[in-house]
Structure formats: C-alpha cells, structure tokens
Amino acid sequence: MTAENEPPLADTIRRIEDAFTDGGERARAEPSADALRAAEALLFAGGEPITAKDLGDKLGPAIDVAAVLMKLKADYAERGVQLVEAGGAWRFQSAPDLAGLFAETRAAPRKLPKAAMETLAVIAYHQPVTRAEIEEIRGVSLSRGSMELLLEIGWIRPRGRRRTPGRPLTFGTSDAFLAQFGLASLDALPGKDDLKALGLLDPRAAQAIDVPRPTEDMASDEEPLSAGDDAASFFVDHLEDE
Fold it and tell me: Where a domain ends, among 100, 129, 159?
C-alpha cells in the first residue's frame, strides 16, 4: 500500500514516525517495555493531563519521551481508550466512537447563550484582547454575564494588562478551552479555508475578511498580572470596573 492510499490513521502514524527520524533514514530506538509501562501508569493514574516535559522528568533523562508517546499512541489507536494531546498535555480518553456508552452517565454539556459564544469566539481569535476591544469587534456592549460565565466555567482567563492609560485587562483562552474543543494549541483553531469548508464563512465575503491568528505569547504592549491577582474570581468582582 502506498503512502497516498494509506488510511488517515496510518498516514498520521507514518508522519509522526518520519518526524522522529534522522533525516528520514534512521528511526529512533524502540522504547523498552519498562519505559512504556511506567509511562502508562503515569498517564492513567495521574488524574490530569501531563506534558511531555513533566513525563520526561518522572521517567528520567535516559528515556526518549517522544518515542514512548509515539509508541503508546500507535498501540492504543484502535482500542477503547486512546492517547491524545490537548492543550499541550497528554492524556488517555475513551475512543470517540464509544461516546454513546456514556450517554446516560455523563452530564449534559452546558449550552452557552449566543452572546457568550460570540464573546468566546472573539477572545479565541483576537487574544490578547480587552473588554473594549471585544465590544468594538462585536459591535454591541458586552454584558457582565457573558464574561462572568466564561470565567466561571474556566474557558477564558485574565492574561495581563495593556500598557496604555487605565491599564485595561487583557483576556485569552485557557487550557480548559483547548481540552474542551480537542485542540492541541491555538494554532489548531480553524483558519479561513476551514471555516469556509464548514459553511461558517460566506464565500462571497471571505475575501474581505481576515481571520486573525492568536498567540499564547505575551504581547509587546501587554504586561503580566501582579502575583495573586490572576484568580478568575478576583476579576469577576471587578468586571464592571473595566
């Protein structure tokens, strides 16, 4: 079977393997059974997603963490649980096609009001962004309830303050947002072509629309928050002051 005819999963695994070769010629050494068992235990028992760096710190410098993750991802690809990356961290989760098994035990996802979803979209694509900038982009005043709700469920977070008069707060999305929508990073947000393909962008207007690419890095006109002032609850009480 040629690479062009490989199924998506096989093609993904092949590209991951190519990424971890020396010039595409020499593959990394196969991880030991002990390294794989230790990584499995950490990923299963930790309770929270774990970054490759933290996993490497626990396994030790002699272990090739990238090779371990690649091997586990391939081994679990067709099983009931799969190894996935979301928000820059790795975790095991149930296979997507088995979601129906949990329909009766999982709480129904919270449905956000339209205003809150629009606010979330603006923050996701324009971050770092201030409250005034959100209102300018949406063209309507921003209700306290939308920001409060997004902060409460943990999908947005206060990032810093603009280096401008009044030092307004800047907001961005959180790791919980990435995990909720299955995004490995902000780079995975749909671009203009993706939005058109999904029918979310009118092709007639697409040429005149610029879909921004957000960044997780601190902007040049943004300063970090003071220690102890980065709790969401603090900003919920001060939203009306912005």
Answer: 100
